[in-house]
Structure prediction request, 220 residues.
Amino acid sequence: MQTDLFATLTPQPERLDLAPGVVLWRQQLTTAAPALLAELPALLACSPFRHMQTPGGHTLSVAMSNCGSLGWITDRQGYRYSPVDPQTGRPWPAIPASWRAAASAAAQAAGFADFLPDACLINRYAPGARMGLHQDKDEANLDAPIVSFSFGLAARFLLGGLTRRDKVERIWLTHGDVLVWGGPARLRLHGIQAVTPGQHPLTGAYRINLTLRQAGRPQP
Ligand code: SIN
Ligand code: FE2
Prediction:
């Protein structure tokens, strides 16, 4: 079922191996996008978008929410995963089954079997919003990849290396693109260049990015 979902959307999706452990499928989710995005309003009714604070006191330009048994948060106390939405005091809403299935299928297609996401960061970029180069390293399980879905306005993804001295590549991520990074690439620096104004029929003036992760400890 999971593999079917992924494979049937685009019969011969263009697979781009960007680097060892980094795979991009362009427009893989364009057909599924309306159904996948239709899940958003109910999730955001539980846990709305908000602009979080960095430990240094800056406010992130990207508006964020989460779903899953864990959600990524940042405040003056630091970056971490929390089972509770600090804004509502309640657990985050569950990851929609269609998102989990698409993410597991993408991971599998990229060579990472048994990917069972327990955390999904929902990023909303208005024009001008950006994400500086960072590593995803707050997850307990670094064996599992990061699976990223992009919708709406296009943006340039910055793909760095394992250190800040390494060269940074710029890759356009457009509506329906699926990007997976893991294995030797799991800790590569990455970010998003400032989004330029535009309109998209499904997301309006925004870029929406979902990153699905296995953030909790692997089950023994
Ligand atoms: C992230 O690193 O959490 C988001 C990347 C993206 O928006 O594509
Ligand atoms: Fe990230």
In short: The chain has a mean pLDDT of 94. Residues 121, 123, 131, 148, 150, 157, 173, 190, 192, 209, 211 surround succinic acid (ligand 1) (CB under 6 Å).
